[in-house]
Automatic annotation (TrEMBL), chain A:
GO molecular function: acyltransferase activity, transferring groups other than amino-acyl groups
Family matches, as InterPro entries: Thiolase, Thiolase-like, Thiolase_C_2
Keyword Transferase: yes
Record protein name field: Acetyl-CoA C-acetyltransferase
One Pfam short name: Thiolase_C_1
Automatic annotation (TrEMBL), chain B:
Pfam families, per the entry: OB_ChsH2_C, zf-ChsH2
Name of the protein: DNA-binding protein
Gene3D superfamilies per the UniProt record, alphabetical: 6.10.30.10
Residues of the ChsH2 rubredoxin-like zinc ribbon domain: 188-219
Domain ChsH2 C-terminal OB-fold positions: 65-127, 225-288
InterPro entries (UniProt xref): ChsH2_C (IPR002878), ChsH2_Znr (IPR022002), NA-bd_OB-fold (IPR012340), Thioester_dehydratase-like (IPR052513)
The organism of origin for this protein: Streptomyces atratus
Superkingdom in the source lineage: Bacteria
Length: 388, 315
């Protein structure tokens, strides 16, 4: 029996901000879930199962979200699962939900991811004082900055590329009402004159710390037929992992990322991602990861990713728009960031992205990664149901 | 073989929580010696109150005041209270259904011994002398010899002056950390200022620090290989922000260093050279301090820089 096609019929996000002091975590996730239900014109009774994801437990000290949030998410009497893959969790959570539908375990699944960074301390959670070990000397940005330098050395990319990404994403965010950072006075000069935190990474080229949640309703072919709005169809989805550190690990272009993308393209029948994909929502927490992932995901040959960015191809009006929503650089509730990428890709092919809509987008890629560039999850969504 | 090491690891953090409307009313109420529950669509009164109906999943906001007296529905004796628990002397954990409520609240009961506790016993709240808007505003429950009056719970608008909107929830976990054979051997060698990794018997790669297994081949590593002490900076960043609890002046260079003979880079600070002169390919060596377990930092050896092709596989 072939797999059941999976459709995204409901999407809900909170307005991402630095601190949502007015709501509990239950209230925050509820807001996103209710918006997704409204989008799908469904009620709690229509949901067969709930799949939830969040960042590592120590980040916000909430160890069992599936227990605490069962009533807020209408999960009583239904299966509720929790997924746990560091920063990529929002993506893998959506894929677990999609697999439940495609395998016909459940017909309609609510999937949701969140983070309330204002009530947590991710930096502390990442640097627990393990006895006998040398403390990490540099923080999260310091972990990634040497890999950015390695990319620049390997490809000969000019220093200016990173600031172009940040300038683009922050301008795109102005068109996305849910984005956290809205800086109407953004200029390229402003991005370039920001202080270097972890040279070669500037303050202006790092992601913010956000409170937010994102929810999606995934359903089968029959559910899609009842959807009041055009669904997004899942054409391919995959996850890959690799160790944080191993001899031969390519931090600039991890093999797990390349393999994951290749698997998704194979499932979706994509031969030339650069030409066949209309919009990309990729996980870019530091600006230079855009050109790096363009190569890792097969949109550019090795060493050529930065040229796409530099020539404007990845701009909202370019021919491969990357992060039309403003991306992680503009919104980063860590646990939700991956799901926001998946949801924004779906919004594009549903034609519901509003001011940041890529005109005529038919196929879009959502991408997430996490850990020390260790977990990857991606899906490709289309405006038409899959034919294979 | 050196003895395997072990040390305590305490992980603690004061997480904050925004309460939202229902928990805010509940905890502020406790500060005012008022216990609030919430009425579900089915007419049940839940204490403590929740924001969403556990049966219908609908948002519920209809607050009601219940009594400060109630009945123990079940209990467990705690003979040895731990740090941070509500009472210092042995006590009973109890579930108390307050008069007017349909569900039970978890708290503690002050009692001389387990023989003084029984399911069905009547209890009342002993309020804390100083109340801040926290569950600890109920100091504990204590025995009470009045019957339930059958009085209906009264509606309450949940409004109080100066409501509590957030709380701090300190979290603490006590572990014993045992780094294992491979890392213990590595640390033992470091104490003699030697850097010793382990070679994978399958792929022949040398891991420093060793983890006891090759992450690629999935086999145990045992063959010890001394590496370095010199190495090559494969890549780096310049850190310009001062980390809390780290006594290093900024800017400083945080580098990946491939020690000679190792098949992956380790991470360390570079010193002995102006930060803006550090470059990929720089040859460095460890600088030890009297009491440090690890090299304090690495400094230039003065050798010519390594050719990029010689280390590019390790970047």
């Amino acid at each position: 029996m072939p797999e059941e096609p999976v459709a995204v019929v409901g999407i809900g996000q909170t307005k991402h901000v630095s601190a949502r002091r007015d709501v509990s975590i239950a209230g925050l996730v509820r807001e996103a879930a209710v918006r997704a239900l409204e989008d799908a014109a469904l009620t709690w009774a229509d949901i067969d199962a709930v799949v939830i994801g969040k960042a590592p437990d120590f980040f916000e000290g909430l160890m069992m979200p599936e227990l605490y949030l069962a009533d807020a998410l209408g999960a009583v009497g239904k299966p509720m699962l929790r997924v746990h893959t560091a920063g990529s969790v929002g993506g893998s959570t959506a894929l677990v939900a999609a697999n439940l539908v495609s395998a016909r375990v459940h017909r309609t699944v609510l999937t949701l991811a969140f983070e309330k960074q204002s009530e947590s301390n991710a930096m502390w959670g990442l640097s627990l004082p393990i006895p006998f070990q040398q403390p990490l000397l540099a923080g999260a940005g310091g972990f990634f900055a040497p890999h950015v330098r390695a990319y620049m050395r390997r490809t000969g990319a000019p220093d200016s590329v990173g600031s172009l990404v940040a300038y683009k994403d922050r301008r795109n965010a102005l068109k996305n009402p849910y984005a956290h950072i809205h800086d109407p006075d953004i200029t390229l000069e402003k991005v370039r004159s920001a202080p270097m935190l972890w040279d070669p990474i500037r303050y202006s080229e790092t992601c913010p710390s956000s409170d937010g949640a994102c929810a999606m309703i995934l359903t089968d072919r029959a559910g899609a037929a009842r959807s009041p709005h055009p669904p997004a169809w899942v054409h391919g989805g995959a996850m890959r992992s690799e160790p944080t550190l191993f001899a031969g690990k390519d931090f600039v272009s991890p093999r797990a990322g390349r393999d994951c993308a290749a698997d998704v393209y194979r499932q979706a029948g994509i031969g030339d991602p650069r030409r066949e994909i209309d919009a990309v929502e990729m996980y870019v927490p530091f600006s230079w990861y855009e050109p790096m992932w363009l190569e890792n995901l097969g949109f550019a040959d090795e060493g050529e990713g930065w040229k796409l960015t530099e020539s404007g191809v990845t701009e909202l009006d370019g021919d491969l728009p990357v992060n039309p929503s403003g991306g992680v650089l503009s919104t980063n509730p860590i646990g939700a960031s991956g799901m926001i990428r998946f949801a924004e890709a779906a919004l594009q092919v549903r034609g519901q992205a509003g001011e940041h809509q890529v005109p005529g987008a038919r196929k879009a890629l959502g991408h997430a990664y996490g850990g020390g560039a260790q977990f990857f999850s991606m899906w490709l969504v289309g405006a038409e149901p899959p034919t294979r | 073989m050196p003895e395997a090491l072990s040390a305590p690891l305490v992980v603690e953090f004061p997480f904050t929580r925004s309460l939202g409307p229902v928990q805010s009313a509940f905890l502020t109420g406790l500060r005012e010696r008022t216990v609030l529950g919430v009425r579900t669509a089915g007419g049940k009164i839940l204490v403590p109150p929740v924001e969403y109906d556990p049966v219908t999943a609908e948002e519920i906001r209809e607050l009601t005041e219940v009594a400060a007296t109630g009945t123990v529905t079940t209990w467990a004796w705690n003979p040895a209270p731990r740090r941070g628990q509500p009472l210092d002397a042995p006590f009973a954990w109890v579930l108390v259904r307050l008069d007017g409520a349909d569900t039970a609240l978890l708290h503690v009961l002050a009692a001389p011994g387990p023989e003084a506790v029984r399911t069905g016993m009547r209890v009342r709240i002993r309020w804390a002398a100083e109340r801040t808007g926290a569950i600890t505003d109920i100091a504990c429950f204590e025995p009470y010899d009045g019957e339930e009056t059958g009085q209906q719970p009264a509606p309450h608008d949940g409004r109080f002056a100066n409501p509590v909107t957030g709380i701090v929830t300190p979290t603490r976990l006590d572990y014993r950390y045992t780094p294992g054979r491979a890392q213990s051997a590595y640390l033992d060698a470091l104490s003699r200022r030697r850097i010793v990794g382990e070679r994978c018997p399958s792929c022949r790669k040398v891991y420093v620090p060793p983890r006891g297994a090759c992450p690629t081949c999935g086999v145990a590593t045992a063959e010890q290989v001394e590496v370095g002490p010199r190495g090559t900076v494969t890549t780096f960043c310049i850190v310009n922000i001062k980390a809390k609890n780290l006594d290093i002046e900024v800017p400083y260079v945080y580098a990946h260093i491939a020690l000679d003979g190792a098949d992956l880079a380790l991470h360390a600070r570079i010193g002995g050279i102006p930060y803006d002169q550090v470059r990929m390919g720089l040859r460095v060596e460890p600088v030890w301090t009297e009491d440090g377990r690890h090299p304090d930092h690495y400094r230039p050896t003065g050798e010519p820089d390594a050719d990029y092709d010689a280390y590019k596989e390790l970047v």
